Structures are given as structure tokens and as C-alpha cells.
């Protein structure tokens, strides 16, 4: 279980997100820009919420603790980051893998398994209450949903205003018309 927690640490999730972003940039997909604000928004929200809620982690008299963590408990940053970053990759799976529906399905099933394994490991290791992890998953998913909706609305707005050939979204350069 500790291995799943380690996968949910900041560096591994950031590297996976960066790798996915590079693949998407190389393939020319504008949706890759979604990963950058998702990561930034996620960390900011967790940093704001933990001190506000100020919930203590489980104690040794309440649960068996395999890993000692410091800091506040709600929401689980690991569960939040996994839902947010790996959820963004889930959303972009068809752009990453291509049109092979089986490959997209396999990728999405693996991502869901990893997200849930990271979340479960936090409870198993005694560093979070179940509600901390469920809250982290929910808030990470909600943050991703808001980012995806904002991204899609922005993309539609730019298409309506400038047409497909002049779209400038996040880091892409506009193509000259005519």
C-alpha cells in the first residue's frame, strides 16, 4: 500500500502529467493546456482548505498507523491530486492514445484503478480518515469538472468569435487566415 501512496506524491503525479502534456503538445492538441491550470488550481485549493478545516489526522489510539504524517487531514491531498491530475489524463485519453477505442478504455480503466488505489492507501496506512479521502476525491473531481467546463466554454467562445482558423487557446499560436 505504501507504493500506491508514493505514486500519489507530488513528484510522480507531476511527472506523469508533464509526460502526458508533452505527448499532447507533440501531437498538436490544444487540450493539453488543460493540465497546467488543473495542477495549479489543485494545489492552491488544498493549501487553502487544509488550514480552514483544520482537521487532525487519525491518532495511534484510533487506528493502526503505518506511516506518520504531519499537517492537517482534510482534504486528502493525495486523493485530491490523483483525482485532479489523473482525472485530467482520463479526460484527455482519446487525444493521448488516439482513436483505438480499446486502448482508450484500457487507459481509462487503469487510471481509475490507480486513483482508487492511491485513495485507499491513505486510509489503510492510517494517515487519513475515509471522509478525508472521499472529500479529496470529490473536490479534485469538482475542480477538474470546473476547469474542463471553463476550457470547453473558452474554446467555443474563441471559435465563435474568430473562427476555427484563428483560434488562440492558451499556448497555441494563431494560424494566419487566407
Q: Could you give a short description of this structure?
A:
The protein is mainly alpha-helical and 178 residues long.
Give an overview of the whole structure.
The protein has 178 residues and is mainly α. It has helices at residues 2-7, 10-26, 35-53, 77-91, 93-97, 101-124, 130-162. Helix 6 packs antiparallel against helix 7. Mean pLDDT is 76; it is low at 165-178.
Unreliable spans: 165-178
Radius of gyration: 18 Å
Number of domains: 1
**Mean pLDDT over the residues:** 76
Count of DSSP E strands? 0
Note the beta-strand portion: under 5%
How far apart, in Å, are the first and last alpha carbons? 57 Å
The main sheet comes to:
none
Key features of this structure:
178 residues
Explain the layout of strands and helices.
Blueprint: H1 2-7, H2 10-26, H3 35-53, H4 77-91, H5 93-97, H6 101-124, H7 130-162
Helix pairs in contact: 2-4, 3-4, 3-7, 4-6, 4-7, 6-7
